[in-house]
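Justification of computing resources. Each target in the renewal requires a structure prediction run like the one illustrated here; the chain below, 130 residues long, is used simply to show the kind of job we budget for.
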Amino acid sequence: MVNTPTPYSISELAQEFTISTRSIRFYEDQGLLQPVRDGTKRLYSKHDKLRLKLILRGKRLGFSLKEIKELFDLYDAKLSSSKEVTGLIDSIKLRKLSLLQQLEDIQVVLMELKSAERRCNDALNKLTKD
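Resulting structure tokens:
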């Protein structure tokens, strides 16, 4: 007997990720999730659960749903010709460059915030000593 994994309901995923069921249905409408239907019930797989986690992470990082879908498409691409593989490699390189630039920008902003915080703390210390 094969042990098939128990699917997740929409309410279980919503509760686990603290999002609304409406959000999950929206991601499904956008083609990002593909639950199996059992009548009117949606049954989500481990694959869907992982994708939902990646969607939410991507959103926290500032990715649009279109960009997240493009990343999923890159991951799911069928690599049946050298032209497709070369195109995929080029897309991956561009995405990596973009992310590295974002990382650099974030690091600069963090340094500026630390500097501003330090100046504020110094000013506060000076004001409380007076």
